[in-house]
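Internal tracking record. Fields below are filled automatically when a chain is submitted to the structure queue. Please do not edit lines marked as system-generated. If the sequence contains nonstandard residues, flag them in the REMARKS field before resubmitting.
Queue: standard
Priority: normal
Entity type: single polypeptide chain
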Amino acid sequence: MWFATYVTGVLASLVASVYYSITARQRGMHPLASRMTLGKMNMSLGVLVTLLGLNQLTFDQLDVIRVVIALVLLFVGGVNLILGTRNFLRYRAAWQAELKKGS
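SYSTEM-GENERATED OUTPUT FOLLOWS
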């Protein structure tokens, strides 16, 4: 069960990361909308790196190197997830304020 969930999560976050990366770099897109999309990309990359870190902890033979790598991946993934969420929420609020101001 863990393997199916892991593979599904990795593939979904990888596809989402690529999709948001391509979408954010389109011409003619409003800068705030582009930054919101980059925040979504950072969130999906955070999920991907966190899942890779969790996978390192599921092996039978846990040695010091594997645990250190897993902790680094978990830290980097968590930071990327938190900062991506913060950026998305910040730019979404600015985008909504700009839309209200314009109408």
